[in-house]
Specification:
InterPro entries: Nucleotide-diphossugar_trans, UDPGP_fam, UDPGP_trans
Catalytic activity: alpha-D-glucose 1-phosphate + UTP + H(+) = UDP-alpha-D-glucose + diphosphate
Family: Belongs to the UDPGP type 1 family.
Distance between the termini: 41 Å
Helix content: 10-25%
Number of helices: 5
Number of strands: 15
Largest sheet: 4 strands, parallel
Pathway: Glycan biosynthesis; glycogen biosynthesis
Radius of gyration: 20 Å
Mean pLDDT: 91
Oligomer: single chain
Subunit structure: Homooctamer.
């Protein structure tokens, strides 16, 4: 399993761990973790590596495992609480049962984690991450691949009440702010980003005064 060093933006991603009683490599997802352990789960200093979703599998070992278990891998179940309409938090609540392919590492004895550079993984699972990749932190290279042009990633936290869905995000962030000089950006409230916003250092935009539009340089 290819893994990368975790950053503050990877708090919710599944991380690699060693099972205490047998030393087996496992992948732990947030939805598999007790609520009282969520703070420890998100600690990137304690759990330093996360799954990059790139897997290398010995096909002979896979075939043997499938023969043993009637054609099915014994992957742990993941329970996710969601709503029928992800864009409507008031819609009917449901429980989504799923499995993660990365958890297959615990099925095979001798599985290992291989650390790879961040260039092997560029996740966009939330609008926080979408803001990062749409900003000037990234550019297209000669191979038309999206690559980082800086050696850091600021911690971006957007108010889920106003930015969680693509429609909400696009309506409020028609142009991503400049983040090259940013360390962190936290936005609370209903704010629209103008096309000239530059974030420098640590910026915390409070809800007071919203809804409104942000302009110019924010931060020190």
């Amino acid at each position: 399993m290819e893994v990368c060093k975790r950053t503050v933006n990877d708090r919710k991603g599944g991380h690699a761990a060693i099972r205490a009683h047998d030393g087996q490599l496992v992948l732990r997802d947030l939805a598999m973790t007790a609520e009282e352990d969520h703070a420890h789960f998100a600690n990137e200093d304690l759990h330093r590596y996360f799954n990059s979703n790139n897997l290398w599998i010995d096909l002979e070992a896979l075939a043997a495992e499938l023969r043993t278990h009637h054609g099915v891998l014994s992957l742990p179940l993941i329970r996710n609480a969601k709503t029928v309409d992800p864009a409507d938090k008031t819609s009917t609540p449901v429980i989504q049962i799923e499995t993660g392919m990365g958890t297959a590492c615990e099925v095979f004895k001798g599985s290992v984690a291989l650390e790879v550079p961040r260039s092997r993984f560029l996740p966009v699972k939330t609008t926080n991450e979408l803001m990062l990749v749409r900003s000037d932190l990234y550019a297209l290279d000669d191979n038309v691949e999206l690559v980082s042009v800086v050696d850091h990633q600021p911690d971006v936290r957007l108010d889920a009440d106003f930015y969680r869905t693509m429609a909400d995000f696009d309506a409020r962030v028609p142009v991503a702010p400049s983040l090259k000089r940013a360390k962190s950006l936290t936005v609370t409230g209903d704010w629209t980003f103008g096309d000239d916003v530059v974030i420098t250092g640590d910026v915390d935009v409070a809800a007071e005064g919203s809804p409104g539009t942000l302009h110019g340089v924010l931060g020190a």
